[in-house]
Specification:
Blueprint: E1 3-7, H1 11-23, E2 27-32, H2 35-44, E3 47-52, E4 57-62, E5 65-69, H3 73-82, E6 85-88, H4 92-106, H5 116-122
Parallel strand pairs: 1-2, 1-6, 2-5
Antiparallel strand pairs: 3-4
Amino acid sequence: MKQAIIFGAGNIGRGFLAELLYLSGYKITFVDVNADLITAINHQQEYMITQVDNDAIFTLPIDRIHAIHAHESDRLIKAVEEAEVIMTAVGKDNLRFVATTLRPLTQPLELWKAFFVMRNVAGI
């Protein structure tokens, strides 16, 4: 199964990016620093996204998910090696951390070029 990583398991990561990846058939790994959120994701193993428009309410269960803590180096390295897609959904203050974390992990995999935009945005 295709693997994806989302750095940031907040509203944008879980509510927007995860839906796109889920509907595209990816298994999703969330990377975050909130230990309670990581525990909840791993315990529940799914959550619901509800969308409302003028005519109806749509509910989509998101499963094929798990989460790891951003400081779990061994698990993070393995996840990056297996991922086909890596996305970020963190605020600008945390983007430097994500870029700094990913740089040494992606250079051996020749993936660092994919992070050029993120690198420039973060000013790194």
